[in-house]
Amino acid sequence: MLNDGWWLDDAYKVWQPSGCMMHNFQTSEISSCLGHSKLLYIGDSVVRQQFYATATLIRENTTSIAPGHTDVRFDFTPENLSVEFWWDPYLNSTRTVELLESRSTASRPSLLVVGTGLWHMRHLEDDYYVEWRNSVNRVFDAVQGNKNKNNKIADAVVMAPVELPFFDQLSKDRHDTITLPKVEVMNGYLKDRQSELELTTSFAIPFAWNKISVGMNNATKDGLHFYPSVTQAQIQLGLNYRCNDQLPKTFPMSNTCCFRYPTPRWYQTIFFFLFLVWIPFGMYLAGSGYMKSVTQCLFPSESVLKALFLFGLCVIYMFFGDRTHLFGKIHKHFDPAMFGGLLVAVLVGGLVSLKSTNEGDLGFLNRDQTDEWKGWMQVIILVYHFTGASSVSGIYNAVRVLVAGYLFQTGYGHFFFFYKKGDYGLGRILNVVVRLNMLTFVLQYLMDTDYLSYYFTPLVSFWFFVIWITMYIHNKANRIVWFLLLKIVIASMVTTTLIHYPGILETIFEWLKLGFNIDWDAVEWRFRLRLDAWIVYVGMLSAFAYIKCMEYKLHESGVWPMVKKTCIGLSCVGMTWYFWFELSQDTKVVYNNSHPYISWVPILAFVVLRNATAKLRNTSSRFYCFIGKISLETFIGQFHMWLAGDTRGLLVVLARPEWARGLGWWLNLGISTILFLSVSYYLGQATTELTKWICSGVNKASQSVGAPRYYETNATSATSAAAAAIGGGNGGGNEYQSIPLLPATTQTLDTSVHTETSAESPSVSARGSIDEELGSPVKRPSWTERIGWFWGDVRVKCVAFLLCLGIVNRLC
């Protein structure tokens, strides 16, 4: 931060330090950081400009009528803060020397800013360098010699580099005496002396100050004294150096300049031990065959150990990316050209990977099509987040529809499954919930964040339970049309009341705080729920309508061609109207009021147009399908390994300054993207395996929920993680409907292994009787097998999880 940086915008509003994210301090933060004490500026007119900029930052319109070459002081009573300037261009006045030698009777400043050099060049001719060097050496000696906390001249000292003026705008006498070679020699000496200081010394020379004015067309009126656009940025760098490490070390950690990340807490250390020590140890024992009985008791199977190790490496990579200074972080800045360029690039990637099949009609909203749909929506969301496009209302509004599109798939997919399969058992619930929440659950502790901050996972989980409850209640009557529609209407009324009625969410969150020490923001959660309060029900009704169309074979009737053409025409009109409407809204806040009631228009229009012909249904993009299959991992993983600072910035893998901009920036983007997608892919593979392991042995528990045995042994459920992907359909030969954001490879369970034995297959006890008749001894289960059976019971796992959750949260 102190040595390099650049402007992110042509308006010179956002300064980007090299490799870190700076904080813009406000009045209350300044007074708190400085201990309601004193800022002291000593030097020439350049330092005085920074002094006035600081006073103006604390309180706008602060002015002084004091003559130019005099001392100035401002006392800000409410803030209990004083800002003082001593006119001493040579740093050799009596009181300055007394301060530097710790002989001053004045109170010690919290931040001392000193600067000199211009008057030496201007007035001392050939002696300028010797005299200037004596002045700055006095400061260096004071900083280096007074290491005792009680004898320090200030809590922190900032020495201004010799200013690099705009030489072509200097007056003639200044131009003749203040020259570039002189400035370079003096700043070179400052760098040499600074390199001799210990790293722990509270002293800094922000050479980046001279880069802030570079390239500005209207930065100064005389070439020497800069306008507030420059001096405000300079003092912010000084405040970041002094105060950033005193900012709260809690989520979100989006101010990384001069900031020490907190030491990992005990529960974060447990994750490190588990993933980097315990799991590798178990893999070693499993591979070597040593202590087999103990290994089986203390560790899961070797395949699960490998999945745990892979999962652990992925999340620890996120930790090192966003909770250490291993990689750099920079601010987001919206650039229309970059946003458009990235969208064109991913569009080309989608088009060149198109594939088509001639093997019949894959059907309405088939597997490939829904994976593709998730994929291109996810790509746009990623580009949107990466470029900081949320500041543009027209883009924000459209992206809100993409989130609604995922929730539409959630309603469609889960409704289709429950209606066709009738499986409401615990197995179905756990597979979906575990697969959706595993990564988010681990990250909230490992990254010390908040569960609701990964808003999509809790959002989809909430609506899954709404759908499950709606379909489960008196499910034997779900084939009665009016009864099913009535349940959907009642469910919508209940959720609307929950979302909009003041106090309900607050009360629920208070119970969670009391029982599990979970502290969630009811206002933020209400906002998330309200935006998409109806689209899930639209998805459910769409699935129901499709099922009835297939049952009554409406697509074979004579009026179907006319209905089809009408729907296509209405979809074109609806899509056009939507974009006109959202672009005409004044702000995104205004648009949000309408979004819950109109988001279904572009979504249904897209569904109709995407399925208008068999050729369109049979064609999909492999690139988008790939992204769609890992859409859960990419959505959650972007928070810490593509973005940074808890989504407030961007991750810079190559943190050297020359690689953080220009062509180097694009190289960084390419490397970080490859790492991001690779980690997301392997996270998906590992999470799928771990979901099967966690939910193993669930069928017996499912029986108690009332799911018919037929559905337990025949229902196949996908478990991905963020909305509902709809696979199968008419003509595709695949009756199964997938769930969005759950990979197609994730199945509920291998029920052939875990289901109860039938009457035709002897049970264990029956087998024991046969063995006894043959004279064979009855084999008793070992203690390790008994422990395995106990922890294999999913009900035991659920109770243990809730107990551990409450205990851990209480201790956090």
UniProtKB/TrEMBL annotation:
Residue ranges, compositional bias (Polar residues): 752-766
InterPro entries recorded: Cas1_AcylTrans_dom (IPR012419)
Pfam family name, one: Cas1_AcylT
Annotated TM spans: 266-291, 303-320, 336-354, 375-395, 401-419, 426-446, 452-473, 480-501, 533-550, 562-581, 593-611, 623-643, 663-683
Topology relative to the membrane: Multi-pass membrane protein
Domain Cas1p 10 TM acyl transferase residues, every copy: 252-701
Stretch list, region Disordered: 752-777
Molecular function terms, GO-annotated: transferase activity
Alphabetical UniProt keywords: Glycoprotein, Membrane, Transferase, Transmembrane, Transmembrane helix
Annotated compartments: Membrane
Family note: Belongs to the PC-esterase family. CASD1 subfamily.
Stated name of the protein: 10 TM acyl transferase domain found in Cas1p-domain-containing protein
Source taxonomy: Eukaryota, Fungi, Fungi incertae sedis, Mucoromycota, Mucoromycotina
